[in-house]
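Review form for a predicted model. The reviewer records the input and the model, then writes brief findings.
Reviewer: anonymous (R2)
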Amino acid sequence: MKAVVVREHGDPDVLVVADVPLPEPGHGQVRIRVHAAGTNPVDAGNRADGSWARVGVPFVPGYDVAGTVDALGDGVTDVSPGVRVMALTAFPSGQGGYAEYVVVNRDAVAPISDSTSYESAAATPLAGGTADDVLARLDLAEGSRLLVLGASGGVGSFLLQLAALRGLKVVAVGSSRHHGRMRGLGASACVDYARAEALDAVLGGGHVDAVADLVGGSTIAALLPALRDHGQVATIATPEIDIDNRGGPQPDSARCAHRRRR
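Model under review:
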């Protein structure tokens, strides 16, 4: 079968199409004929140096796929060949999505409707799963206020919808050109990241119960004062903040614990 292979880390030109063996599903696994594969920032990182996910060469990139079930491993009885599905390969050490066929564990496979395009489905597993993980870690009560940085991106778009389903009041931070779309996805209010001072007016002098930082870096520093005492911060990228002082530069010795999953 054909696959995109990385034989050495580097720039995008190290991606080459090559013939590789057809993978066989083992016990509890499913082989999928890939119709579409998703791309994420972590894929570029794996291609560039592989250090974060500890990916050695050669390897086939890609975590997100959508397609049809092609073959079943022993013990798989609740899905049939030909069914339309989306799936996530083993994260973060396993990839393989940029190929004609990929083998994944059965519990990482979900059906998709006939009305859902393969392209849309392939953009869902990693970004949607990350958003769900962030909300699960925060475990906010219905009616809580959540400030989302980077709300217009892939993870943010899923997080807005999932938060709205949980009854959370979401303040979305993103470029003003995305405000209409973010409100349509469930944001209660929107703030332009270039006008952080507008947040106080949006909150009416109050505070948020939690911050979901989907950007990392120094973006959160100017907005952290909006977090109430004993509030929570969940981040998928390293933030530069001083937790004690609610903002400002953060020394390396005081980095906030986080889980990067994108």
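Findings: The two ends are 28 Å apart (CA to CA).
Further findings: Residues 247-262 have pLDDT under 50 and may be disordered.
Recommendation: see findings above.
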